[in-house]
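To the team - alpha-D-ribofuranose complex, inputs and output below.
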Amino acid sequence: MNVFNFGSINVDMVYRVPHLVQPGETLASRSLVTVLGGKGANQSVALARAGIDVQHIGRIGVADEWAAAQMAAAGVGMDHVEAIDGASGHAIIQVDDAGENSIILHGGANQSFDAPVLEAQLGTAAEGDWLLMQNECNGLDVAFDVAVRHGLSIAFNPAPMAGNVMALPLERCAVLIVNETEAAELAGAEDPEAALAILAARYPQTRVVLTLGAAGAMLQVGTRQIRQPATAVQVVDTTGAGDTFVGYFMAGLIQAMDDASALGRACRAAALSVTVAGAAPSIPTAVAVDNFQEPTVPPCTR
Ligand code: RIB
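Output:
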């Protein structure tokens, strides 16, 4: 069984600021660092660090091959990553003193896919393989279509949420991972637990996973629900925490963990990631996650 991740690769320019810039304000940053990011790349790195043999499907500008090299160094399979002329995807990220962030995206190479490219890159996938996707690349409709035709198991993290998501065949997802904002928009309900219940009822065959930031995560399949509180840590930078969660949760499922164990490990990995600055650089190894001593409250199942 192969694992593919069709996703963005970004150059993250991270500015530390005393507070997120306000409308009309000009604010000096305290520092600037440039690191590997992109929800797709981050999730591939998390899968690889969790011990999964993952093939990334993506594109990057030729000038930024250092970012591809970092993915490869993390253990991500790069046979389906193309270096193209033109700008890479990039993100301008402010991180404030509380570790919260605000992100401007430029799609660049992540928005350059066409149907023949995706057909070719996903052409090697076979029934039973996994395809993970986020919402930073164009061509998701094509990728869903190819995945359904090839009998792939689809995992989707509709981040960042946008209007195209509602038109995708989400009922085909084996796993749907959303945060509170995404859940509210998809379900049409503000309350996170109500939104989770609506999504689980709408997609009864799907593991719907709801991340709740500092409050942990929940999972529902049909009427079976699991809740995992988060571990309290010293927050440095929350960027990439959701991606760390997605990668580790998917790794747990692929490694045949039960849902509660996969959820617990994903929450521990995400907690560790927020203690380190940057997106991809903050994603912990499986050894670090397994050695994480902070006690976690066991999940409650009902
Ligand atoms: O989820 C964090 C990521 O969002 C960053 O790495 C940035 O590139 C944006 O895609």
